[in-house]
Structure formats: structure tokens, C-alpha cells
Design a protein that fits this description.
264 residues; Lyase 2-enoyl-coa Hydratase, Chain  A, domain 2; 9 strands; single chain; 2 domains; six-stranded mixed beta sheet; alpha/beta; globular; 2-enoyl-CoA Hydratase, Chain A, domain 1
Length: 264
């Protein structure tokens, strides 16, 4: 599914999703969310795509869900209409809970608020422009973030900072985000997307299976003891060592040429 409000482009193994509703600060409508999920599944399932970049048009990343659309439907989320959603059987049904094996990079300009911030938090690498702002303002509207915002934010920034952002709904600016490690780079708005795509191209040039395994080990380390994560790393390292790409790398080094990785 594709809409004019959700653009999708693939070039040199890198897919770029652009939220394209700048007149509404790229607020996510129901139709946009369906298109977003379709594009994420395309990145996940298409072996020619190795890395995804998510960004927003018009100097804004995303101001969150379309609350006007929600208010027209009574104010609540469809998800909140059934107690069965407390336990989600299909974690791949929603972007905030799907298991995504390939690297995702968020290129954030302007507002990244509410669901927009949660999309950025769901990415593996975040870079931002000097004018970026990050926040979870849901508490000021009578509810709290439901797309993994509190859970991920508490893993990425100091506990006190995460609690202040979640409980006050206040924003932080780009420099604060850089200082606390929420983003890895801060660049000008003009450099933002080219920088994100250059990082993506760098990653896409590596052996795809090794990249996915490295991501899995790094993410697992957040929940495992060091010894457990080392055992997982050892197992995956052996598996990756059996691939053609793991043999191509040393051969290319010995032959003084660039490796050609095929994902096998």
C-alpha cells in the first residue's frame, strides 16, 4: 500500500520512507499507518533491501498521531476498545512491537513528538538536525504513550530524564538529545538526509547476515546478563562464520580488493 502521504524509495539496497503530510506536521492518519506498516514489511521481506531510513517532509519528522481524526471517532484508539489488546498475540501487527531484523535509521528534523518520537525510538540509529525537538506529550491529553515510548526511552537515557519527559510531557531540544546520547549525530537540516543515507549506505555495504546478527546480539545485551549475551554472540558468530560472505571478506582482504557481499 502506498499513499501520497507516505513516500517509499529504494536505491542501492537502502529504502527511504518519507512521512509526507507537512501541512499537518506529518501527523499519522489511519491510512498512513497502514501504508507505513506495508513499507516496513517490504523492507523486512525484500532481500534486496538491507537498511531502512525513516524521515519526514517539510522540516518536520512527525508530530504524532492525527488527534483530529481520533477526536472525530470519539477520541479513543481502536486498540483501546478491547481488553484482548492487553496481550498482543501477533507482535508483528504493529510497528512498535514488530521484530525488525534489519537496521533502521531515523533522520529527525523539527518535531518528533508522541508517536513520531516513538517511531524514532524504534529505530537503531537516530540522527537529528539542529532544530529537532523530542517529546512524549500524551500525558497532557489524558493518556500516556502506548507505542513503546516510555519503555524504550528509559533504556536510552538516564532514568530521571526519562521520567521527567514521560510525566511532564515536556520536550527536549537537539543539543540535549545529543548530550544524553539519544541521538548519535546532530547536523544541519540540509545535511540531515544525506548523512542518514550515507550511514545507511555504509551499513548496506557490509555482509547482510553479519549485520543482522550483530544487531540481534547488541539488542539482546540490553536484556541479558553479560555471560548470556556472550553465549548468544558465540553461537551467532559460529553461524555467520559458515556463510559465503564470511569467507569473501578475508579473501578480498588478501587480494587487496573490495569485498562483494551477497547475503549468502
Amino acid at each position: 500500500m502506498s499513499t501520497n502521504h507516505m513516500l517509499f524509495e529504494v536505491k542501492d539496497h537502502v529504502a527511504t520512507i518519507t512521512l509526507n503530510r507537512p501541512e499537518q506536521k506529518n501527523a499519522i492518519s489511519g491510512e498512513m499507518e497502514q501504508a507505513f506498516m506495508a513499507h516496513l514489511h517490504e523492507i523486512r521481506n525484500n532481500n534486496d533491501i538491507r537498511v531502512g531510513v525513516i524521515t519526514g517532509a517539510g522540516g518536520v519528522f512527525c508530530a504524532g498521531a492525527d488527534l483530529k481524526e481520533r477526536a472525530a471517532g470519539g477520541g479513543g484508539r481502536a486498540l483501546d476498545n478491547s481488553a484482548a489488546t492487553i496481550v498482543e498475540a501477533d507482535l508483528s501487527a504493529k510497528w512498535w512491537s514488530m521484530n525488525f531484523e534489519k537496521p533502521l535509521i531515523a533522520a529527525v528534523d523539527g518535531y518528533a513528538l508522541a508517536a513520531g518520537f516513538e517511531i524514532a525510538l524504534a529505530c537503531d540509529i537516530r540522527i537529528c538536525s539542529t532544530g529537532a525537538q523530542f517529546g512524549l506529550p500524551e500525558i497532557t491529553r489524558g493518556f500516556f504513550p502506548g507505542g513503546g515510548g516510555p519503555q524504550r526511552l528509559a533504556r536510552f537515557v538516564p532514568q530521571s530524564m526519562a521520567m521527567e519527559m514521560v510525566l511532564t510531557g515536556d520536550r527536549i531540544d537537539a543539543q540535549t538529545a545529543l548530550n544524553c546520547g539519544l541521538v548519535s549525530r546532530m547536523v544541519s537540516a540540509e545535511e540531515l538526509l544525506p548523512t542518514a543515507q550515507a550511514i545507511a549506505a555504509r551499513i548496506a555495504g557490509h555482509a547482510p547476515l553479519a549485520v543482522r546478527a550483530a544487531k540481534e546480539v547488541t539488542q539482546a545485551a540490553l536484556d541479558m546478563t553479560f555471560a548470556q549475551s556472550m553465549r548468544l554472540g558465540g553461537s551467532l558468530r559460529w553461524v555467520i562464520g559458515q556463510t559465503d560472505d564470511a569467507k569473501e571478506g578475508p579473501r578480498a582482504f588478501a587480494e587487496k580488493r573490495e569485498p562483494v557481499f551477497t547475503g549468502k
